[in-house]
Amino acid sequence: MKQHVVQSGDTLNTIAKQYYVDVRRAKDIARANGIKNPNQIKVGWRLVLPNVSPPQTISATSPAKPKPQPASKHKTEGIRITESQLAEIMKTTAEMTQYCEAVNTCLQHYNINTPLRAAHFLAQIAHESGGFRYLEENLNYSANALKSMFGKYFKDDRLASDYARQPHKIANRVYANRMGNGNERSGDGWRYRGRGLIQLTGKTYYSQYADDRQVDVVQTPNLVASDPMLATDVAGWYWDSRALNQYADNDDMRAITKRINGGHHGLKDRQFYLNRAKNALGV
Hints:
Order of helices and strands: EHHEHHHHHHHHHHHHH
CATH topology of the largest domain: Lysozyme
Shape: globular
GO biological process, one term: cell wall macromolecule catabolic process
Strand content: under 5%
Number of domains: 3
Number of strands: 2
Region (Disordered): 56-77
Helix content: 40-55%
Protein name: LysM domain-containing protein
CATH class of the largest domain: Mainly Alpha
Domain LysM: 2-49
GO molecular function, one term: chitinase activity
């Protein structure tokens, strides 16, 4: 049986990615080696790499850890999006092939199983990610933008100027002491900044997702922005956690946007994508 000697910087997630191309295999490695705390492995440990079949992860035919879904008037007949349909909706230079599989897996797992539900989901992730082009939060703000958007944290010109165009510092200030993050010096604000097609933000939500989906994004949060399957699944998880299918069934874009955005920012763009999605899916 193949083994791996732990090197400096290794985590169970990176080892799983290296040998199985699937970070979700980390739990198999932990189980095979009797590791109770996957966050505490030591350099020099010789780990057995189990030759087991892939776990039931975010798969279109075998969804992992099914969750109760809100009651719906629709039957669960399911829907699949083709690559050409996805490209028609997004109209972007992003690579569609890798996202097509991820989207279909997500639709299956989170019961986004009618053309109308899928149209609303696709419209929201299209707006939030700029058509799959942006998988993590852009915090490169000018001083004026900081005062406009985060006036609570930047109340004068001097302070705003001190932080301007420094994304690390900005994130650590505006996300400090909330959403499960530590203080500004902890670095949690930057570490757990927004990532994914609907952005996962804050240590609390990274931890909740990790617990629900058995993917250790707390220790390796960058995976959410680097793995298209994870980036998409995070969006589905958020959608499901807010029971947004019921609003999609009512064709209520404003209600969905409110629960994703906290307001109605970008409503015109979201409507633009919704119209495209409905047209592509024949709604």
